[in-house]
Structure to design on (299 residues):
């Protein structure tokens, strides 16, 4: 790793907590953005998480909702307004505030669904949307860097510990035809494959053990940062909406996890890998399993 040279940009009001001082610094090329509002430490964290996911869907209408480093809802839609409604439906309570990231120009209809508790980040905003935001005291950030290039700005992840500084490559894994395999007798429909890819791309950015439940290109439940029973948590949250849905996991699952999902009528699983015992159960219950060939754990 090259030596990090910190170039001071500005002082932030505080860090994660009010008792923590914080600054924004430049250590590498940064994205081009503009805003008239003061941004907080948590704003930058939430925007980064939202833009990471949005960059996976830069060429379609996508809405991503986050609170700090937690993802609360993701969806695609015929337009941004529809995508936002679907994303909010995943977790309506946490969607009341936080960061909302969009992949296209925000219009008035979409803007009217947001409140003063939101920070909005998007490639552009039309005049009527800005008028709505200003009237409702909604902060907004214009992202000038194309979302398709967002992944190129961070190559390494750095964590400072008492043992030393840990450095690893940024996870830029992509699905490919050689690793993407259907391992069950039952094969997926075109719609199931689309939901599977969508679910996997979201799961890549949530904390392990991560479970994402998806149907119709919208998240129904997201379990993140749980050390055990993540699948059961997601199933309990999704409840009846899990019928015929897709479940993605960033790590292999246990038979208990599989059974909990089957009881909630999950139709397809997309996993890094799977045991023969689970494949046999999937064939017995006529479920589909797709394997990706690699984990995407995020700690």
């Amino acid at each position: 790793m090259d030596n990090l040279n910190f170039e001071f940009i500005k002082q932030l009001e505080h860090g994660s907590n009010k008792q923590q001082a914080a600054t924004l610094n430049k250590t590498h090329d940064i994205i081009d953005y503009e805003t008239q509002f003061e941004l907080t430490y948590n704003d930058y964290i939430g925007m980064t998480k939202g833009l990471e996911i949005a960059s996976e869907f830069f060429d379609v209408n996508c809405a991503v909702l986050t609170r700090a480093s937690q993802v609360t809802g993701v969806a695609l839609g015929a337009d941004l307004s529809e995508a936002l409604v679907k994303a909010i439906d995943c977790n309506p309570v946490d969607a009341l505030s936080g960061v909302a990231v969009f992949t296209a120009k925000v219009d008035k209809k979409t803007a009217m669904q947001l409140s003063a508790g939101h920070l909005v980040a998007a490639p552009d905003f039309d005049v009527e949307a800005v008028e709505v935001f200003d009237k409702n005291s909604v902060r907004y950030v214009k992202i000038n860097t194309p979302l398709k290039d967002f992944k190129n700005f961070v190559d390494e992840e750095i964590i400072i510990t008492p043992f030393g500084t840990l450095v690893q490559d940024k996870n830029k894994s992509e699905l490919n035809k050689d690793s993407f395999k259907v391992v069950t007798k039952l094969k997926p429909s075109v719609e199931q494959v689309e939901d599977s890819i969508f679910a996997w791309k979201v799961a890549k950015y949530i904390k392990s053990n991560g479970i994402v439940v998806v149907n119709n290109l919208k998240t129904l439940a997201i379990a993140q940062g749980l050390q055990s029973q993540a699948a059961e948590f997601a199933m309990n949250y999704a409840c009846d909406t899990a019928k015929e849905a897709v479940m993605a996991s960033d790590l292999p699952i246990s038979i208990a996890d599989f059974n909990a999902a089957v009881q909630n009528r999950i139709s397809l699983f997309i996993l890094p890998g799977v045991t023969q015992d689970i494949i046999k159960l999937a064939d017995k219950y006529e479920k589909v399993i797709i394997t990706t060939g690699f984990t995407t754990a995020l700690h």
